[in-house]
Amino acid sequence: MEDQSKLFDDIKVLLEEQHRSPEEIEEIRSAFDFAKNMHQGQYRVSEEPYIIHPVEVVKILIYLRVDKDTLMAGFLHDILEDTDTTPEELKEKFGEDVLTLVQGVTKLGKLEFKSTEERQAENFRRMFIAMANDVRVIFLKLADRLHNMRTLNYMAPVKQKRIAQETLDIFAPLANRLGLGKIKAELEDLSLRYLMPEKYFEIAQLVSQKKTEREDTVNLLIEQISQDVKKSGIKATITGRAKHYYSIYNKMKRLNIAFHDLYDITAVRVIVDTEKECYEVLGLIHSRFKPIPGRFKDYIAMPKGNMYQSLHTSVIGPRQKPLEVQIRTWKMHEIAEYGIAAHWRYKEKGSTKADSASDIKFSWMKKLVEYNKDTTNAEDYVNSVKLDIFSDQVFAFTPNGDVIDLPVDATPVDFAYRIHTDVGHKTTGALINGRIAQLDTKLKNGDIVEILTSKIAAPRLDWLNFVVTKQASSRIRQWYKKNKREDHIEIGKANLEKELTKNVFDEYVKNGEFNKAAKAMNYTCADDLFAALGYGETTINKIINKLSKPVKQEEQIFTSHKKGSSDKDIIGLEGMLYSFARCCSPIPGEPIVGVVTRSKGVTVHRLDCKTLEDMPPERLLDIHWANENTNRTYSTSIRIETAEKQGLLKDIIAMVSDNNTNINFANVKSKNNKLGIIELGIELDNINTLKKIMTGLQSMPEVYSVKRIQTSFNQAPQQFSKKNSGQKKHPKKAKPKN
User: For residue 30, what pLDDT is reported?
Assistant: First the structure.
């Protein structure tokens, strides 16, 4: 194997190309040497020496032109997690700055969490907070994730999909928000490759097939623009570039069109020296080629939230082919490529926090800290960040011309709360572009919004039905939590009493069950729980899930003899009275759902039961079998269509009995003296036993079909038939559910 020390040679060449000083390169080399020694003997899943990963991460960071400390942290970013190195040792050798950066990207260690999801959510929360304090943390994290995605093919398929989805949900939007265009595009393409490989390779093939024809058209356009620009005395660099695969896939999906209907798969980019020349080039292009109406965007006058600036126009180019043209200056181009990395380099050394005055374009980072103050739950925090910060944006204006960025579908109420909490609380109406508008109106790019307020704060609870930002919804709920408490206690009580009936509600109050449920849901007392239900912080469904049934004497007798009512059978119904629905007779191994009744506890149904079609969602409980291999038995019925043959019933009963299954009843009918119909009521332990019985019956020569009866009409009964070779047979009246 080649000496690992030679790995630094490539790094050194790249650093020298950026004119880094020999002293700086030597310091970076010391971090490489330390990482190489500490990771000695460690290997990645690809069986490469582990040090290869930090080296590739640093190459990505060099592309971003980050500072010396960030490059050193790039070599050391896994040291605390994967070696015995202590934070104190790292600080002593490389300084506090490097230690802070490494800790910002280090995953949580030995802390206990209820689930993998909770642990990962807390990891993200720590990363976002660290990023808000020092933007260099995210350069490290994105470089680390990008190299991991490049080597994802060595992972198991399940891990590939999980990591790719996480990348698409968190890291690609983050790169986009930071203006890191190339990194965002590569992360999206790699995610698509593992999440939807068929689509990825289909698009790759289609792009490849039309490549020559497309390049010829683009080259003609470039040649003609070059002639016009040269005559005008403008110095310009003109290139063609293909859109990345995920962008193509996303546009096809969003517009519901085929690949061949897309006309901006390739764009021509014109880079000039000044902003004035951008508009001059635009005029030259429009005078030679016919612009497509509605396809011009001026991101120079109104930059995107990530500081991206360019003029975009689409024209009918050579050979009557539509093409997109982007026009920008060299400085705009650098911002488009490197985003916040370029912005950060222009700042004074040490100014790496998101709250500094020069970071006004990235003021959204401050919200990462604000959201952390609003919620103690890591998963809620991450969901808020994904919704409010990483979703598609709408840019609206205050009457003074200040830009407010909001998620798509945001309303004037979201706008008001984004300005200030007090403005949101006192909102009474809104003017959009000078006209009175309803408060649930969805804002569009460029809208000028003026919020009308009163002197007294009086937010409305129904605003929760249409606000889309977590910031607005949490502020509204907080206000109602502090105000009109008594009203909401009464509303909560009334809603619960209506759902449970007055007798059951009173029984719960008498036995202190609401107080127990309140403590289980982190409320101080029952009144806090009722108030939370009243102002919409929790739901009836969640409360009922936490309640233990107050059991009367006669109910105890019923419960103890109720077949299948053991708390050990079903997770999610602990301590609650429940029974199995006769309409669908669920069996262990099948997906199930609980339905809260007004007086008989919970009824357990199969997930496909037809009686659930019009059931209100708040009455449904998320439950599942504790163990498919129980010692109990469960009832169901099957229907067997057979040829007419004497003694066949005896053979069928014998076959069923051989599978340790009890038969409750048997009905035999004859149809046209040619077809026999046998209905059997059987008791068995789980769905696998039923499948075994049905398969065994079907193997008998005289049996035409076997199916389970009492099934939902919107899903075919489980059935085996010689006519369809084991495929599901849908009844004629069955209609698929939309």
Answer: 92
Question: What are 340-371's pLDDT values in tens digits?
Answer: 666 555 444 444 444 443 343 455 555 555 55
What pLDDT was estimated at residue 343? 54
Domains for the chain: give ranges and CATH numbers.
Answer: 4-202 (1.10.3210.10), 204-341 (3.30.460.10), 393-482 (3.10.20.30), 485-546 (no CATH), 553-625 (no CATH), 634-721 (3.30.70.260)
Residue written as tokens 């916040």? 340
At residue 672, the 3 state secondary structure works out as coil
Give the C-alpha separation, 200 to 390, whole Å. Answer: 23
| Contact predicate 187/146, CB 8 Å | yes
| Residue 16, C-beta contacts closer than 8 angstroms, at least 6 positions apart | 25
- Which residues, in sequence order, are CB contacts of 158 under 8 Å at separation 6+? none
d(CA 326, CA 315): 11
3-state secondary structure labels for all residues of 243-306: CCHHHHHHHHHHHCCCHHHCCCCEEEEEEECCHHHHHHHHHHHHHHCEECCCCCEECCCCCCCC
Residue 553: is it exposed, middle or buried by C-beta count within 10 angstroms (0-12/13-18/19+)?
A: exposed
Is the full-model pTM beyond 0.70? no
Q: What's residue 386's pLDDT?
A: 53
Find, among 324, 293, 290, 292, the residue nearest to 310 by Cα. Answer: 324
Q: Which helix (H) or strand (E) holds 636?
A: strand 634-643
Indicate which residue of 16, 26, 33, 81 is catalytic. 81
Per-residue burial over 561-573, b if 16 or more Cβ lie within 10 Å, else e, is eeebbeeebbebb
Distance, C-alpha 357 to centroid of its chain: 32
Q: How far apart are CA 106 and CA 119, in angstroms?
A: 13
Do 15 and 28 meet the contact criterion of CB atoms below 8 Å apart?
yes
Bridge pairing between strands 602-606 and 578-580? parallel
pLDDT at 581: 82
Residue closest to 573 by CA, chosen among 562, 582, 584? 562
Which of 82, 117, 462, 644 is the catalytic position? 82
pLDDT at 327: 94
How far CA 308 is from CA of 64, 340, 364, in Å, comes to 16, 10, 15
| Interval 172-182: pLDDT, tens | 877 887 778 88
Determine the Cα–Cα distance for residues 314 and 268; give it in Å rounded to an integer.
10
What pLDDT shows up at residue 554?
Answer: 34
Partners of 637 in the beta sheet? Answer: 681
Check residue 526 and give its pLDDT: 86
Contact 514, 508 (CB under 8 A): yes
The low-confidence residues of the chain, meaning pLDDT below 50, are: 1-2, 108-115, 346-361, 388, 550-567, 711-738
Q: What is the pLDDT of residue 737?
A: 36
Instruction: Please calculate the CA angle 717-722-725 and round it to the nearest 5 degrees.
Output: 80
281 within 8 A of 270, measured Cβ to Cβ: yes
Phi-psi category of 684—alpha, beta or left, where left has phi over 0 and alpha has psi -120 to 50?
Answer: beta
78 is catalytic: no
How would you write 83-120 as a 3-class SS string? CCCCHHHHHHHHCHHHHHHHHHHCCCCCCCCCCHHHHH
> Three-state SS for 420?
coil
Contact assessment for residue 171 and residue 164, using Cβ atoms and an 8 Å cutoff? no
* Active-site annotation holds for 82: yes
pLDDT on residue 618: 74
The structure tokens listed for 459 are 């937010």
